[in-house]
Automatic annotation (TrEMBL):
PANTHER family: PROTEIN MICRORCHIDIA 7-LIKE, ZINC FINGER CW-TYPE COILED-COIL DOMAIN PROTEIN 3. It comes from Aegilops tauschii subsp. strangulata. Belongs to the MORC ATPase protein family. InterPro entries: HATPase_C_sf (IPR036890), MORC_ATPase (IPR045261), Morc_S5 (IPR041006). This is Morc S5 domain-containing protein. Residues 421-512, 527-570 are annotated as: Disordered. GO terms for cellular component: nucleus. Its main location: nucleus. One of its GO terms (biological process) is positive regulation of defense response. Residues 263-406 form the Morc S5 domain.
Amino acid sequence: ADTSQTNPSGLEHVRVHPKFLHSNATSHKWALGALAELLDNSLDEVRNGATFVNIDMLENSKDKTRMLLVEDNGGGMDPDKMRQCMSLGYSAKSQVANTIGQYGNGFKTSTMRLGADVLVFSRSRGKEGKRPTQSIGMLSYTFLRSTGKEDIVVPMIDYEKNGLNWTRKLRSTFADWNTSLQTIITWSPYGTEAELLEQFSSIKEQGTRVIIYNLWEDDQGDLELDFDADVNDIQLRGGNRDEKNIEMAKRFPNSKHFLTYRHSLRSYASILYLRLSDAFQIFLRGKEIEHHNIVTDMMLKKEVTYRPVATNGLPKDSNMVADVTIGFVKDAKFHIDVQGFNVYHRNRLIKPFWRVWTAAGSGGRGVIGVLEANFIEPAHDKQDFERTTLLARLEARLIQMQKDYWSGNAHRIGYVGARSFRSPETGRENSPEGSPGAQPSPGHSGKDYPKQRNAGKSYSASSKKSGKTSTPFSCQQAEKSARTKRSAGSILHGLPDTSDDSDSEFVNTPSLSSKSHILNAHRKYFQNENTSLATPASNGTTEKERSITKSQLAEPNARSNVDGHSIDDHEPVIKQLRDENASLKERLLIVEEATSQELVMERDKVKSLTERLEDLQRQLDTANKEQEALIDIFSEERSRRDEEEENLRQKLKEASNTIQELLLEKSNAGRKGQKV
């Protein structure tokens, strides 16, 4: 809590309780976001000559625990700038163009988010006739809480270069300087002044070295930062890490950053900046991070220019535009759920893979985009934007861009539109009512044709529904063929004679259409044979010949049909029916597979929504903890004030009693004098 105090000069100053450090650090929900703040500080130093930033792991020589190192060769900080950096809420960057930091709180919140304590070494060249300086400062939550400090005390010591030697630079008295040194030695990983000064050996003429120690642990007692999974990376444990995504990243390299940026600093840092000068390098655990622009992961790219419009309907600034590059990730042909826009602000990634469109099913899958939006302001943690009308309009425009792009290009990577059906045999999209280009079967008008287009029905079903025979027999022919219909049906393996309606089922594809013509030809053959059977025996055939024919028909082993023809003659028809039956089964399997894929998509969507809900719940829990911490701070301050007030009352009471006693003694002494 903040309480007003008066310093010896008579000016009021604000006291900040050490618990505020921890509460303030929780503004960073994501540890890699806190690390990105430190990278921003180093990149901002490019204007002061920085050419690299190095992130690495060190070992605490006192307790053998692991520490995090972030160092650069930027302009460094003189004693005044060091104190400004270590104080809360100060920033000299807000007036400097093309710098990322602006709130002046990022260094404190980011370092305290990663660990309880931080030690800063900085060396600065002499400017404007001043001598070169080097400073050491310690911001230690452990020190403040362990010693019961009510204020945030930051011990610092400074050195000044005289010739070739570094001498102590005093700001007040030597006693104060020595007290700060002893405090740093006691609560830092380095036990002597010589060990502290040795840290400057890696800094040449200028630069800054930040060491974060007493790193935070998770609920299982393990470090939140994982240094063991990859010797060239720093990764996160817990909810940000998804083993399934890690395996998928190996199979789909073009989607690697989408799948791994949540837990891998190397992956995240490679896309953290839209542009990175070749003269500036980022090293992570001894290996350079290769800058990556996800535009190179796209195919079928399209560029769209978005111009924000102010509330009065006029452009806010003619230069305030966003050039959006949108396309399919090159792995989109595998139909993996990768999508979102990388939104940058002043070259810095604010929203990685922002998922603006959450569609039912597979809508929008594989579509990614990149844009730089300098007309909207980022939030304090640089992981989101301030909720403004401009942001809402940008989001709506990006949703429409993604929908338009998806509807115009989804078919090019194998997706089927919601209102169309892609025939497995032909690859053509057909409407639900029928197949374009199919022709009505013989004997039916065009208006009857759409009724014949259900390829999912079997011959049996269509035949029973139509109630027709396959050939237009005359009444006399139908009367004679009725006696043979049952036996003919058994030869066709139980399939009843089909109508032209069922024949039209094969018109949907060229291969099936050709088969239907073969069937029609065989039906004509059946019709001719039945007609010959119906002709009276007036062609000169003798009774003996007819009896021989009947005896042949009656033989058990005779392979003949009731119409007098061999079954072997009709085996091609049976084979065609069997092939078409197999084809229908294959189509059914394809439909089942598509349904299964949709089910998997829905499950993934449910999982994504569940994760978002859990994340919101974690944010709510964090907010509750912050509120409880502030309540504790106020309670402690109130208790302390009450205790001080009670002490003052007690002292006042004691002083009053003392005064009364002195007055009484004086009175008694006066009386004795009078008696004498």
